Amino acid sequence: MSFVRLSSDHQPRTREVFLDTSIHCCRLKGPDFLGRIEDVLRRFRWKGTSTYCKVEFGNVVLAQAEYYLRKLKETGSLQRVLDFIGNVLPHSLHRAKVTWSFNLLSQVCGSDEEERTERARLSLNRLMKLGVAFVEDFCDKPLADGTECDYARKGVTKDSQGQLKWRPPRCKRNHRQCKLDEFFTKHRGDFVQIRDAILALPSEKLTDQLKGFVEVVDRALQDPRVLLDYRDGCKRLADAIIAVDSMGYGCMFSQNVKESEVLTGVLRQDFYYLPPNTARGVEVIMHSEGS
Amino acid sequence: MSDAKTRLACAAILKSGIEHIEDALDNDSEFFIRNNALEQAKECLAKLWEHRQQREEPFVELVNALQCVFAERDVECFGNGQLAALRDAMQSMLDAGEIDDDFANSVSLQLLKAGIDVFREIE
């Protein structure tokens, strides 16, 4: 199966679509993405997502917003923050901070530096206060909640100084905070199917993330509790967890092109995708029509 | 907590801004009238911004977000659906009086659902 460009009269095979974290993030990437997202979503009557996407959104976007707010407080100047990100921060180690500065900071307007700094702080504060509701309230409820992740419920918190904080999960298996191990056991067959599909891929299609899925699934097959360790388990299997949480949906909307191509193939979902080149519009793989 | 005088002044400005957006909606085929109405609405938001020292932070955050949406935009970039969402947001602010974080969240979500990215200026 391969991507085809979405035509204006395209009719999805189901009226429900599932949004991966990457789509929620793309809603903050400007009009070229936002317009195409709307073009896809107007064809559906129901848009679902996973509570786990709230955690990933926090890790990807809110963590950067929190960082920028901290730097604004330290330097007192938007320009100095942008200079620091552009000229001091090692880009190879902090790609997300650089990328998201284009989306969250560089568009800030104002008559002088003081006003631009104030507006940047206000805008980032607004985003932090909205927190994971940015994901939750955009979609129809109830959200898929197979893992019952505790961090997805917590969202943004305030520290003792009143600063808004996104705390990435630090879960350990000896302090169980979700039901991911039970979720894996319940869907063991689906995870095995995903693993087998990855192993059957030609080497040029294997990404590090896909290889990571195989390794983590293999370990989880021995003992599902390994998934309760966030860094070595849960985090590395994130896209596959969201994919399995989307079961029952006939259509998936995602920007993780290589991973989602495999995952939607296994789950027989049609896969909607926005190529970075906007001239290519929206693309779709109709896995439901495949053999 | 902002003082009553400031709240009344802001309410009058908001009301005026809403009327300008309604003028723009009523004149969607009249480019100059629509453009002029939206320019007036932007001026109202700029006046609200001048009251920021006296208003609660969630109010100022929303004014900032609305200004960013309007900033340096050509009138033809706004669809009627987006204008209606902006008008409804301003009407909610007018009705609410004092604004807290939960209220600001609900207005932000209304705008996001209408396809308006309140965290980034529309290009």
Helix content of chain B: over 70%
| Uncertain stretches of chain B | none
Q: What general form of chain A does the structure show? A: globular
Residues in helices of chain A, as a percent range: 40-55%
The number of distinct β-strands of chain B equals 0
Radius of gyration of chain B: 14 Å
Estimate the strand proportion of chain A.
Answer: 5-15%
Largest interface (CB within 8 Å) is between: A-B, 23 and 26 residues
Query: Segments of chain A where pLDDT lies below 50 for 5+ residues?
Result: none
Content-based structural category of chain B: mainly alpha
Strand and helix order of chain A: EEHHEHHHHHHEEHHHHHEHEE
Number of domains of chain B: 1
As a whole number of angstroms, the C-alpha radius of gyration of chain A is 20 Å
The total strand number of chain A stands at: 8
Q: How many strands, which pairing sense, and closed or not: the largest β-sheet of chain A? A: 6 strands, mixed
Report the portion of residues of chain B in β strands.
Answer: under 5%
Q: Which whole number gives the mean pLDDT of chain B?
A: 90
N- and C-termini, Cα separation of chain A: 9 Å
3D architecture notes:
The complex is a heterodimer of chains A (291) and B (123). Chain A is α/β, with parallel strands linked by helices. Chain A is built from 14 helices and eight strands. In chain A, strands 1-8-7-6-2-3 form a six-stranded mixed β-sheet. In chain A, helix 3 packs antiparallel against helix 6 (113-130). The longest helix of chain A has 25 residues, at 51-75. Chain A is globular, with a radius of gyration of 20 Å. Chain B has 123 residues and is mostly helical. Chain B has one domain (4-113). Chain B is built from five helices and no strands. In chain B, helix 1 (4-26) packs antiparallel against helix 2 and helix 4 packs antiparallel against helix 5. The longest helix of chain B is centred in the N-terminal third of the chain and has 23 residues, at 4-26. The radius of gyration of chain B is 14 Å and the shape is globular. The mean pLDDT of chain B is 90.
